[in-house]
Amino acid sequence: MMAAFFLACSLVFLLQFFVWYCRSLISASVSHPLSVEVRDVMNLPAPASGEDFARVTQLLLLCPDRPEDRSAVRAIGAYFRLLNFVRASLARVVPSAQLWIESERSRCTHFAAVTLDRRIAFSRELLAQQIEV
Amino acid sequence: MSGSAALLVLFLGTLLEALVVVCAVRRKLFRRYFFLNLYMILCAAASLGRWQILQQEGIKSLDYRYFYFYSDAVLTIALFFALISLYVYVFEEMNLERYFRLGAVVLLAGTCWFSYTVVSQSSHKMLTYFAFELSQNLYFVGLVLTYVLWGAILKLRETRSLLVQLVLSLGVFFGASAATYSVSNLHPTFFSYVHNMMPIMGCLLPLAWAYAFWRVADDDHLPPTSLSMVPR
Asked: How far apart are the C-alpha atoms of B181 and B193, rounded to whole Å?
């Protein structure tokens, strides 16, 4: 009985902390403006749409990996899947949650686009270093 | 999990723990977050001990299990004090350090006593289960304390990004660890699940902290309302 109580509490707290952690990662990227280049290449609307997340992450995977971004990208990927799950289940019962979920999905896409921007800049730096050598 | 997979996870964990300390030293944050770094150093030391026993005795040996869970109990106590140091840091302007330290010792003693009571009632293998029970209870107490600390951070409108990310990743780690230990208590057959999952989850905290020390500047600030679920 007690173990079940501990488990239930732990899972609820874990879920909350995970959502807050992902939101803190995303918040750090919100103030970062997207370069015109990435915006044009990805053809992203002014507030990015959640529907573009898969497209941006596919491009992200094609760019050379930056170790410091890896854990954040994975966490946001998991958060996005969680949002999709909530959208497909809970949001049908509570329609007011739909708006919040869409804004969160949009912020996830912005985060992925900012990371893509950083990776492109990183690839350019690498290329420049190789040319110098 | 096979022996070689366990070695790989252990190696990865040790690397990440060392990376946290290196990043903190490089960013000149080692002294400010001393207890967090001390915990990472202790983790790396424990990993080296586990590495040696794993290579000599194998993953299924009793020696490895004993060493794993006893070192885990010690590490949980260290993490508990790391959490209290974050409390001190958040409330530093109120000069409540003495009270937090006293409260931490009382809470730790209470958790030890509770674990002892539970183990002495249900088992004749006191020493075997005490470390396991203590770790489980401390993870849960740590989780609740992190939740309270997070509430205080929101209430005080604390905006330091680094502090926020350190606290939240600690909350995720405490939550995942407490849930894993609770699963094993539901039924003894789940014990092997804990035995396999804990080292993997042990990599999560150093990964998140290394990211925070590496990427987030000490003077970065988040908008106070950006983390609350409901816009204020």
From this structure: 9
Name the residue among B186, B207, B226 with its Cβ closest to that of A71.
Answer: B207
Q: How many residues does chain B have?
A: 232
Q: Give the pLDDT mean for B176-190.
A: 83
| Average pLDDT over every residue of B165-181 | 92
Q: What is the ipTM of this complex?
A: 0.82
Domain boundaries, chain A: 19-132
Torsion-angle region of B125 (φ positive above 0: left; ψ -120 to 50: alpha; else: beta): beta
Helices and strands per DSSP (H, E), number in chain B: 8, 0
Closest in A18, A24, A100 to B227, CB measured:
A24
Q: What is the pLDDT of residues A43-56, one digit of tens each?
A: 777 777 888 888 88
The domain ranges of chain B are: 3-215
Cα B93 from Cα B131, distance rounded (Å): 36
Residues in contact with B156: Cβ distance below 8 Å, sequence separation at least 6, in sequence order? B90
